[in-house]
Amino acid sequence: MTNRMANKIALITGSSRGIGRAVALALAKEGAALIGVHYSANADAANATVRDIEALGVKAVAVKADLREGKNAADSLWAQFGEAARTETGSSALDILVNNAGIAFALPLKQTSEVAFDEVMTINYKAPFFLIQAVADHIRDNGRIINVSTGFTRIAAPTHPAYAASKGALETLTLALAPEFATRGITVNAVLPGVTETDMNAEWLASPDARAGAEALSVFSRVGKPEDVADVIAFLASNDARWTTGQMIDATGGARI
Ligand SMILES: NC(=O)c1ccc[n+]([C@@H]2O[C@H](COP(=O)([O-])OP(=O)(O)OC[C@H]3O[C@@H](n4cnc5c(N)ncnc54)[C@H](OP(=O)(O)O)[C@@H]3O)[C@@H](O)[C@H]2O)c1
Question: Which residues are marked as active site?
Answer without folding.
Answer: 163
